[in-house]
Amino acid sequence: MSASNPSSARSRGRAVTYTAGSIALLIVGAVLDICAVANVPGAATYPTVDGAAGGTLRITPVGVGIALFAIAAWFTVLWRRRHPLVVVIAGGVLAVVGTSYLLLLIGAVALIRQKPTKVVPIGAVVGGSVLLFALREALTPWGGALPWFLTTSIGAVDSVEWNVAVIVCALVSLGIAAGSVALTRTRDRAERSEQRAAVQTQRADVLAEQTVRQAERERIARDMHDALAHRLSVVSLHAGALEAAADAGVTGQMARTVREQTHAALQDMRGLIGELRSGSDAESSAPATMRAVGALVAGLRGAGHAITSLILIESPERAGALFDGAVFRIVQESLTNAVKHAPRAPIDLIVQVAPESGARIRVVNPVGAGVPAGAPGSIPGGGNGVLGIRERATALGGQAWIGAYEGSFIVDVTLPWQERG
């Protein structure tokens, strides 16, 4: 079974409420206007004895016709949302005939809701009509129903009290209608605000999802760059050395290094592609963990690179996954950068990691000891490695200083400690 949509449930509830309210208005309004037929001169007779009521109120044939018309007119209230102008016209006819102006006010409220920019002219016309209706009841023979039903005396209709009551009743009715319009407009504005808020929330969710996806793509791009650039840089260097040493008969060790690094690069590629396909962290032959820093350095030393290292790592099992991987990737990319641009120069590496102080990574190599561009073993740089180091440090709230200083190229990164969750 599927869960019901809350918005659909609200819509059904509003439809039921609207229908029930319309039926109630129809019944109450029709009854009131049938009683108000006595307002119209010639529609009813008031049998009196010495000015007092002496029998029942009798409706004339004219009054019966007016009552039937009033009932028909009140049926228009069922369509006040779709066709409010029809309700206004029907209510206006009843007001002209002299029964009441109640249907006119209901139609005016519905018409203003449909045409909110016309509130002033609609209000002026309807308000004027209601006041004219009241003045007619106060100054002419119209308006005998209310005094008859409340006092059973037709003579009371000419009293000052009833004339004032008619005017007050008209003003109160206009005030209630104006309040209903204000309440309706406020509710409509609130609904529109909720709809706009829902649209903005949906847009924000879409943007957040896109941002998350973009961040994930950037993370995978950094991992691919850091993992493969290191392997392929070593392969490229030794391929150039193989070319230069082909005639010297000393290519065996270099060929083995090329083969090993190529195989490792393929393993890294398989692991990253598996991660892209599965959406989870796939295992690779060179896991992105600070525990592998020693093996990384040993591999470069075995390939003939002079690296002096100091590696002090405390409690690696307590480190968070992002922090753990970032330490390894920053060391890997820093060494790759040094090997790429200064393959014959010694490299100094310091890695210090502790829960109390976080991580400090420092890689130093001389500037100017690189392979000339275009020479065998030269490797073009795209600048993505340095950018990736900065991005990783920033993402974890750390700092990265990268650049040349006093004849050396220095990568100096600090990262705050992150505990495993």
Automatic annotation (TrEMBL):
<protein>
    <recommendedName>
        <fullName>histidine kinase</fullName>
        <ecNumber>2.7.13.3</ecNumber>
    </recommendedName>
</protein>
<feature type="transmembrane region" description="Helical">
    <location>
        <begin position="85"/>
        <end position="112"/>
    </location>
</feature>
<keyword id="KW-0597">Phosphoprotein</keyword>
<keyword id="KW-0902">Two-component regulatory system</keyword>
<feature type="transmembrane region" description="Helical">
    <location>
        <begin position="162"/>
        <end position="183"/>
    </location>
</feature>
<dbReference type="InterPro" id="IPR036890">
    <property type="entry name" value="HATPase_C_sf"/>
</dbReference>
<keyword id="KW-0547">Nucleotide-binding</keyword>
<dbReference type="InterPro" id="IPR011712">
    <property type="entry name" value="Sig_transdc_His_kin_sub3_dim/P"/>
</dbReference>
<keyword id="KW-0418">Kinase</keyword>
<keyword id="KW-1133">Transmembrane helix</keyword>
<keyword id="KW-0812">Transmembrane</keyword>
<keyword id="KW-0472">Membrane</keyword>
<dbReference type="Pfam" id="PF07730">
    <property type="entry name" value="HisKA_3"/>
</dbReference>
<feature type="domain" description="Signal transduction histidine kinase subgroup 3 dimerisation and phosphoacceptor">
    <location>
        <begin position="216"/>
        <end position="279"/>
    </location>
</feature>
<feature type="transmembrane region" description="Helical">
    <location>
        <begin position="59"/>
        <end position="79"/>
    </location>
</feature>
<dbReference type="InterPro" id="IPR050482">
    <property type="entry name" value="Sensor_HK_TwoCompSys"/>
</dbReference>
<keyword id="KW-0067">ATP-binding</keyword>
<keyword id="KW-0808">Transferase</keyword>
<feature type="transmembrane region" description="Helical">
    <location>
        <begin position="15"/>
        <end position="38"/>
    </location>
</feature>
